[in-house]
Amino acid sequence: MFISRRFAPNLGAPLLRNPQAGPHCDENINASQVHLVSADGKLEPAQPLSIVLSSFDRKNFFLVQVSPPDEDEAPVCKIIDKRTVRATERKKAKPVKKILKQLELNWAIGANDLGHRLNKLEEFLRDGKRVEIVLDVKKKGKVASKEEAAAVVSRIRARVNEVEGAREWKPAEGAVGVQMTLNFQGKAKK
User: Fold this and answer.
1) Which residues are CB-neighbours of 90 under 8 A, at least 6 positions away?
2) Distances from the Cα of 175 to the Cαs of 48, 149, 179, in angstroms?
3) CA 103 to chain centre
4) Strand residue runs (E) in the chain
5) For residue 121, which of 21, 75, 133, 143 sits 20 to 30 Å off, Cα-Cα?
């Protein structure tokens, strides 16, 4: 005789439980009586599990077994807010990554264009982001002299020094006037 699990939920259907709470949560607590830790941290006398489960909003809270039962004592349980558990799980699951922004400049950049790019650089650094500045020779157009190229690098470094907490997080790569990469990092906001 074939019995479908779909129509017979009592024949080995998986129990629904909160995965964050572990195996001893809500109906999965193997005890008929439980001690409940109140909101102020005091241990209440043993109560039937069914009464405790019906005493709070099951959509927003769940009951977790905090300590295993002794031979003659009921287990200690606590009512936990699901939102706080989800929030802590999200914080653990998503480590904060440093955002890397990239600015591309040529050595013969005009003063106004450079000023605009430096304003963007300052904005990124104040937001606590990492910024990679790539300086390269433009294929067609004006070729900058060594003095002009050195002046561009010094203006970039001067603007970075104006931003509180900003620093060069990786040494510069390349050569002035050819191709160069500068890496800066702003102070993270708290």
Assistant:
1) none
2) 76, 10, 6
3) 25
4) 33-37, 47-48, 61-67, 76-81, 100-106, 130-136, 167-174, 179-185
5) 143
Query: What is the C-alpha to C-alpha distance for residues 94 and 35, in angstroms, rounded to an integer?
Result: 35
Residue with token string 């002035």: 176
Taking each helix axis as running N to C, give the angle between helix 111-126 and helix 146-162, from 0 to 180 degrees, rounded to the nearest 10: 30
CB atoms within 10 A of CB 152: 21
Partnered with residue 62 across adjacent β-strands are 80
Give the separation between CA 114 and CA 164, rounded to whole angstroms.
21
Q: Report the candidate in 91, 114, 87 with the shortest Cα–Cα distance to residue 103.
A: 114
For tokens 């904005």, the residue is 123
Q: Report the length, in residues, of the chain.
A: 190
Per-residue pLDDT of the chain (190 residues; tens, 9 = 90+): 444 444 444 443 333 444 444 567 888 888 888 989 888 888 888 899 889 998 888 888 988 888 888 877 888 999 889 898 888 888 887 666 667 899 999 999 999 999 999 999 999 999 989 999 999 998 887 888 899 999 999 999 999 999 999 999 899 999 998 999 999 998 877 6
Give CA separation, 154 vs 27, 91, 149, in Å.
68, 40, 9
